[in-house]
Amino acid sequence: MYKTINFAKHSSIKIGPLVEVFVIEDKSYPKDTYILGQCNNVLIGPSHPPLMVLGKNYDYIKIENNLLCVGAATPGGKLLSFCKKHDIRHFELLPKLPGNIGGMIKMNAGLKEYEIFNYLHSLETENGIFLKKDIPHGYRWTDFKGLVFEARFEIHNGFNQEHLEIFKKMRDNQPLDPSAGSCFKNPEGDSAGRLIEAVGLKGYQVGGMAFSSKHANFLVNLAEGSFDEALSLIQLAQQKVFDKFGVWLENEVIIVDERYKGENSPLLKN
Length: 270
Ligand SMILES: Cc1cc2nc3c(=O)[nH]c(=O)nc-3n(C[C@H](O)[C@H](O)[C@H](O)COP(=O)(O)OP(=O)(O)OC[C@H]3O[C@@H](n4cnc5c(N)ncnc54)[C@H](O)[C@@H]3O)c2cc1C
Fold this sequence. Notes:
Blueprint: E1 2-6, H1 7-10, E2 18-24, E3 34-36, E4 42-44, E5 51-54, E6 61-64, E7 67-71, H2 76-85, H3 101-107, E8 110-111, E9 114-115, E10 120-125, E11 128-131, E12 137-138, E13 141-142, E14 148-154, H4 161-170, H5 192-198, E15 205-206, E16 209-211, E17 219-221, H6 227-245, E18 254-256
Parallel strand pairs: 2-5, 3-5, 4-18
Antiparallel strand pairs: 1-2, 6-7, 7-14, 8-9, 10-11, 10-14, 12-13, 15-16, 16-17
The structure holds flavin-adenine dinucleotide.
Flavin-adenine dinucleotide (FAD) is lined by residues 12, 35-42, 54, 72, 97-100, 102-104, 106-107, 109-111, 147-148, 174, 179-181, 254.
């Protein structure tokens, strides 16, 4: 029921403690426990809540009622291979987009106007089934309550190899150092990377953490960086960009630490 995960190794940003994590194999799990996917978009602090992940029973792909039904623990790469094999289109954005379908759905992950919600039909969640039209969502946000068990997508035939190559190329500028992907969401009409660079923080390093010199909006772990170093850089960029441009950079990376006050305030409670 529980497994030990070392988040300093397991998370993409290589930060976090060693934790006993609950593994959900049926639909029962402890209350007030935070669900994780593959940890490609999270920064886990020392004061994290209890944590859980979906087990192997939620790693599957099947076609039912002309819908592509995908368990929330299914890795994006597996879905891409399935779609290629079965000649299904609109999932060509998935290469090099690390994560499970549950995490991608929660984040509405994507690239430019291509988002995982585009061809979503419905979600099976702990609170029942929701049609896409009833789920508020937008650029890197969704608003639904509770855990996702399964995502159901429309099926359109014609896997597009050309699109696949284009999506792969679009990621050529992403740094290879450990990160959680983009640190901040792009403010409307602007880019977080440009703003970070404009306040002189591209390549700026605190301890083992830095805003990448390749792409300023990637907070990278260069040498055993810590949660506090990561957070101090996030706070610094938010403050500097706000002081210079009056724009508050909203986190894309999710900070999992109970002292953190939330999206619009970078401060930690005592
Ligand atoms: C190198 C790199 C490149 C990246 N490039 C992109 C990119 O181009 N576009 C993009 O959008 N993202 C990108 N990301 C971020 C990341 O890939 C996505 O956000 C992905 O969706 C995270 O999936 P995950 O399984 O790792 O989720 P996690 O990071 O584990 O969790 C993310 C959120 O989803 C929630 N969650 C996870 N599973 C469930 C579930 N079953 N039910 C309800 N909530 C759940 C968690 O509580 C958390 O809030 C990148 C990350 C890296 C490291």
